[in-house]
Amino acid sequence: MGKNILSLALSTFLLAGFAHAEDTSSTLAITGSVTANASKDCGININQNTFMISESMKDVIDQGTETFNGTGQALNFYFTGGEECITMATNGRLAYRLTGTADNADGTALANMDVSQTRAKGLGIGLYDKDHNIFPINKELMIASPIRVEAINFAIVKLTGQEAVPGTLHAAMTINIERL
């Protein structure tokens, strides 16, 4: 009888412990490929994987501003690969597209994916080319260059028709390679 009560008490304690445990989620990104011929591999080298952008609200530009002053962060990248990849890029048969969750205003900026209580509202991350012109997201294919370093500039933008409230921003973007 004593063993049954101890067993029941121990089982109850373990169940209570599991019921009060907090979930902590994590994301693991795994990428890779298997190819029969390495000369056909194409890739992208980037100068960094994450950025920290900090702007004063007085310096934040309106969404759709054609040119910005360049105070944001820049991502530099270039294409790598075997002989066939370089030939495709040289012949204009290799392109890239920027993809990510677009904002809910004009759809031209990366949406703020932060869900915390301190998240910014009415703000997104604008993408600009090396000449500081709006860089299309989820739309146009950009022809890759085998010899040129590409650049994407990031700036915090006020979303069209929304009240901008300062806070934290989180966004993600993927550079997809496409063969033409």
Automatic annotation (TrEMBL):
The keyword Zinc does not apply. InterPro entries: Adhesion_dom_fimbrial (IPR000259), Adhesion_dom_fimbrial_sf (IPR036937), Adhesion_dom_sf (IPR008966). GO terms for biological process: cell adhesion. Residues 85-177 form the Fimbrial-type adhesion domain. It comes from the Bacteria. Keywords: Signal. Pfam families: Fimbrial. The keyword Signal applies. Residues 1-21 form the signal peptide. GO terms for cellular component: pilus. This is Type 1 fimbrial protein. It comes from Lelliottia amnigena (Enterobacter amnigenus).
